[in-house]
């Protein structure tokens, strides 16, 4: 997607003057129509684990009758699907969609209820399977077969089709989440993630979310960039059963092009599912991308901006042309709405200039 500037966001959100938020279930605004109060809502969006929304409610206890209010108990039920929107004034953006996974009732000087909702990935992580055979014609068909049973827990899906396989069977061991991330994504060169109720199985190079441009000392409250030494060769090996020969692929990874080489380490993996050089290269490239993200990290805090999302990017400018300025891939974004207003923080894995 295109780069979006703070000028255009200020026009959309009326200069960020009136922070606003909704927690909805079945299209109904639970918070706006209730008598209880929201102390805070914290939404954590992630590319690698299940996204979550933590809602802390106050004014929830009937002291005279010594019980929690019935309207809170009926609004938030384990398994209930909820959606969280944040923004300013009447301009709100959907940030999270998932099910209530945990409810904590706390009796203290100020009784409260803490509701934690998670997206469909948490449910997928809980499945355990062994030697399950998927009779499919492509990796995208396998993805569709696995994800269809989770339809009650997400809104829609966006899937990039993959090429037809030479075999018509893919074996699964482990959870549905592990099968998609470790088997399908690596072999098909795809990313799998969930955002605001939409399940994505997309080409790894696809750009689905905005790049938000932030200027130092104007739009950013704080920013840190850190790089760690990495000089490694990732080597993936397998066996071509038909030709009865070894197949292999390797990729070199450095944290920075200017980094000095000392002793290059090697990470070799024998993968039974690799049947040709193309398979090996895809898995090696995927692992190299993950390693580079681990070596290149950054974090930042700014005013609340709903467009900053995991899977998107931030473009930092006017910080330091050679060391800071550039485009950063967002791995995790946290949106916090409380009595102090609305703020966004983000964690980065990988950058380019």
Task: Please name the defining characteristics of this protein.
3 domains, 24 strands, three-stranded mixed sheet, alpha+beta, Phage tail protein beta-alpha-beta fold, Phage tail proteins - horseshoe like beta roll fold
Short characterization:
This protein has 353 residues and is α+β, with helices and mostly antiparallel strands.
Runs in which pLDDT lies below 50 for 5 or more consecutive residues are: none
CATH architect. name of the largest domain: Roll
Biggest β-sheet strands, sense, barrel = 14 strands, mixed
Q: Helix content range of the residues, please?
A: 10-25%
* Overall tally of structural domains: 3
Name of the level-1 CATH class of the largest domain: Mainly Beta
Class from helix and strand fractions: alpha+beta
Number of DSSP-assigned strands: 24
> At the fourth CATH level, what is the homologous superfamily of the largest domain?
Baseplate protein-like domain - beta roll fold
**Global geometry:** globular
Question: What is the H/E order?
Answer: EHEEEEEEHEEEHEHEEHEEEEEEEHEEEE
Radius of gyration: 23 Å
Might you state the CATH topology name of the largest domain? Phage tail proteins - horseshoe like beta roll fold
How far from one another are the termini?
A: 17 Å
What is the averaged pLDDT score? 90
| Strand residues, percent | over 45%
Oligomer kind: single chain
């Amino acid at each position: 997607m295109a780069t979006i500037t703070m000028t255009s966001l200020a026009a959309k959100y009326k200069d960020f003057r009136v922070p606003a938020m909704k927690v909805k279930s079945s299209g109904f605004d639970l918070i706006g129509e209730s008598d209880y109060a929201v102390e805070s809502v914290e939404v954590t969006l992630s590319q690698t684990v299940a996204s979550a929304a933590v809602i802390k409610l106050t004014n929830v206890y009937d002291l005279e009758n010594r019980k929690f209010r019935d309207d809170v108990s009926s609004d938030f039920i384990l398994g209930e699907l909820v959606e969280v929107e944040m923004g300013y004034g009447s301009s709100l953006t959907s940030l999270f969609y998932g099910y209530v996974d945990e409810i904590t009732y706390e009796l203290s000087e100020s009784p409260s209820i803490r509701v934690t909702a998670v997206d469909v990935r948490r449910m997928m992580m809980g499945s355990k399977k062994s030697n399950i055979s998927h009779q499919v014609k492509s990796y995208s068909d396998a993805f569709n077969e696995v994800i269809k049973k989770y339809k009650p827990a997400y809104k829609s899906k966006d899937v990039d089709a993959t090429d037809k396989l030479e075999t018509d069977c893919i074996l699964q061991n482990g959870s549905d989440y592990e099968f998609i991330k470790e088997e399908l994504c690596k072999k098909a060169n795809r990313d799998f993630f969930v955002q605001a109720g939409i399940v994505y199985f997309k080409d790894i190079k696809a750009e689905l979310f905005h790049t938000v441009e932030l200027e130092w000392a104007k739009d950013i409250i704080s920013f840190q960039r850190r790089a760690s030494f990495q000089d490694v060769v990732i080597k993936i090996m397998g066996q071509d059963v038909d030709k009865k020969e070894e197949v292999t692929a390797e990729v070199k990874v450095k944290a920075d092009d200017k980094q000095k080489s000392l002793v290059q380490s090697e990470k070799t993996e024998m993968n039974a599912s690799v049947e040709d050089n193309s398979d090996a290269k895809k898995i090696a490239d995927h692992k190299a991308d993950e390693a580079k993200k681990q070596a290149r990290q950054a974090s930042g805090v700014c005013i609340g901006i709903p467009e900053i999302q995991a899977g998107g990017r931030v473009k930092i400018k006017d910080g330091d042309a050679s060391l800071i300025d550039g485009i950063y891939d967002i791995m995790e974004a946290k949106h916090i709405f409380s009595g102090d207003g609305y703020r966004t923080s983000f964690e980065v894995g990988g950058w380019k200039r």
